[in-house]
Amino acid sequence: MPNKTNDADVAFIKALAELLHENDLTELQVKREYGENDALNVRVSRRTEIVTHVAAPAAPAPGPAHSGYAPAPAPTADAGSVEDPASHPGAVTSPMVGTVYMQAEPGAPSFVSVGDKVAEGDTLLIVEAMKTMNHIPAPRGGTVKRILVEDGAAVEYGAPLMIIE
Fold first, then answer.
1. What is the pLDDT of residues 22-42, one digit of tens each?
2. Domains in the chain: boundaries
3. Sign of the torsion formed by the C-alpha atoms of 72, 99, 125 and 109
4. Which of 36, 37, 40, 45 is nearest to 5 (CA)?
5. CA–CA distance, 56 with 82 (Å, rounded to integer)
6. What share of the chain is helix, strand, coil (3-state, %, to 5)?
7. Could you tell me which CATH number the domain at 85-164 has?
8. Predicted structure pTM score
9. Where are the annotated segments for Disordered (predicted)?
């Protein structure tokens, strides 16, 4: 005789997988508590590849106008292979899936720009997730070397946001 809880759990997991696919999500995690020592903890994810486009820096605009976003520098000939920003020791990665905002509100100055010195705990940017603005703090002090995301861009969990050295 089939176990009804097991059949219901399998149906639940299949429904989660369908939600993942239909809503173009990369990961879902759910914990169901049935009783004191009876729970189901499910994480459904699909593999995605993060593609980082490297663009040559544009000529700086005259005047003090600055968007706070600086494109990643073009790779040099002696680089040998393309460096994965996520594996850089100074990489700051996204702790969640959401939308990046480089400033507190439209028209306000960016939290940080390339070349800025930051202290541990300083706000680098905001990731909005489910209508909640999450300030992303600097995990360590240093200088912002590269900003790898644009204002308003969608980011995945673990995606590199910037490099601090």
1. 777 777 777 877 777 777 777
2. 4-45, 85-164
3. positive
4. 40
5. 14
6. 15, 35, 50
7. 2.40.50.100
8. 0.50
9. 55-88
